[in-house]
């Protein structure tokens, strides 16, 4: 709660946060923009898709990430999308794709660099956004008309994601996301494969599409009980086999929420955050020098409360 109060105050009060920008005409077609304090040149952009078990996702869940990345001169766009039962997986993929299209075409108006856009998703958001990316590549490879291109995405960062749904149905059922509900979200058992990026890239008809995919980097905690880290490892191995540049970064002992929530709340050094910032700023010497001079991140919650949160969290 101490950390949430501080982030919520920033979220609702800061003039650097632009809330509920409309990107489409469907319910929850809104996104939040987190802007650096000074925009004297076009800034790199992270399009972030939050998690929430496909049921409780909300754009504000990305506020801590948005705050921290914007402090390092990176614009963050947190996309909201229809949750179940308001929508099923097809609706979620459609919403996120439309949100990405909006960012690609309009982010320059907010000081962003349309040539430096990165896509990132966490948990269910990693699954949805990876589906969007692969499906978009397939459309392009078939010559279909598209409103944005995978070539506009410099890299994909997947955090604690699920990429092979048939392999996870029983696991989710045992964790409380019951089979009947999960299959309803995913539009039936017959649709699991067509919404599984790991399976989609192996389809022979997708052979031309995989070469359109950007660099893919998947992050996962080895002690993640919500979505096992094997999900990321197996997807990267599959991507390598089909010729996609990809890598997995595993964090020993980290749980499903450690990487995204608990570690950032601790302040100080954050390996995942530092990795992403260094990757985005890799070809910008001035930005790298500024990052090196940045003060340590502030702790937002006492360690005893973070440990208590880890113990009682259902994730």
From TrEMBL:
<protein>
    <recommendedName>
        <fullName>protein-S-isoprenylcysteine alpha-carbonyl methylesterase</fullName>
        <ecNumber>3.1.1.n2</ecNumber>
    </recommendedName>
</protein>
<feature type="domain" description="BD-FAE-like">
    <location>
        <begin position="31"/>
        <end position="239"/>
    </location>
</feature>
<comment type="similarity">
    <text>Belongs to the AB hydrolase superfamily. Isoprenylcysteine methylesterase family.</text>
</comment>
<dbReference type="Pfam" id="PF20434">
    <property type="entry name" value="BD-FAE"/>
</dbReference>
<dbReference type="InterPro" id="IPR050300">
    <property type="entry name" value="GDXG_lipolytic_enzyme"/>
</dbReference>
<dbReference type="InterPro" id="IPR049492">
    <property type="entry name" value="BD-FAE-like_dom"/>
</dbReference>
<keyword id="KW-0378">Hydrolase</keyword>
<dbReference type="InterPro" id="IPR029058">
    <property type="entry name" value="AB_hydrolase_fold"/>
</dbReference>
């Amino acid at each position: 709660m101490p950390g949430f109060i501080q982030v919520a105050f920033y979220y609702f009060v800061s003039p650097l946060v632009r809330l509920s920008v409309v990107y489409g005409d469907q319910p929850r077609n809104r996104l939040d923009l987190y802007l650096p304090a000074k925009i004297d040149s076009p800034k790199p952009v992270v399009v972030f898709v939050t998690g929430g078990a496909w049921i409780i996702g909300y754009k504000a869940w990305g506020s801590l990430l948005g705050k921290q990345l914007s402090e390092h001169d990176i614009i963050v766009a947190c996309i909201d999308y229809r949750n179940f039962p308001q929508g099923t997986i097809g609706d979620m993929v459609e919403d996120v794709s439309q949100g990405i299209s909006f960012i690609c075409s309009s982010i320059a108006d907010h000081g962003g660099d349309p040539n430096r856009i990165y896509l990132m998703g966490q948990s269910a958001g990693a699954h949805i956004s990876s589906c969007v990316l692969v499906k978009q590549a397939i459309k392009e490879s078939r010559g279909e008309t598209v409103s944005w291109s995978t070539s506009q995405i410099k890299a994909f960062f997947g955090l604690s994601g699920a990429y092979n749904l048939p392999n996870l149905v029983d696991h989710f059922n045992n964790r409380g996301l019951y089979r009947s509900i999960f299959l309803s979200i995913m539009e039936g058992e017959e649709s699991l494969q067509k919404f599984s990026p790991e399976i989609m890239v192996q389809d022979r008809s997708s052979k031309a599409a995989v070469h359109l995919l950007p660099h893919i980097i998947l992050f996962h905690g080895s002690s993640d009980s919500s979505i096992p880290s094997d999900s990321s490892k197996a997807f990267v191995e599959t991507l390598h086999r089909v010729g996609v540049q990809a890598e997995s970064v595993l964090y020993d002992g980290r749980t499903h929420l450690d990487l995204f929530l608990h570690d950032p709340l601790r302040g100080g050094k954050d390996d995942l955050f530092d990795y992403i910032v260094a990757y985005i700023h890799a070809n910008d010497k001035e930005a790298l020098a500024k990052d090196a001079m940045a003060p340590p991140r502030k702790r937002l919650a006492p360690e005893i409360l973070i440990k208590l949160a880890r113990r009682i969290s259902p994730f």
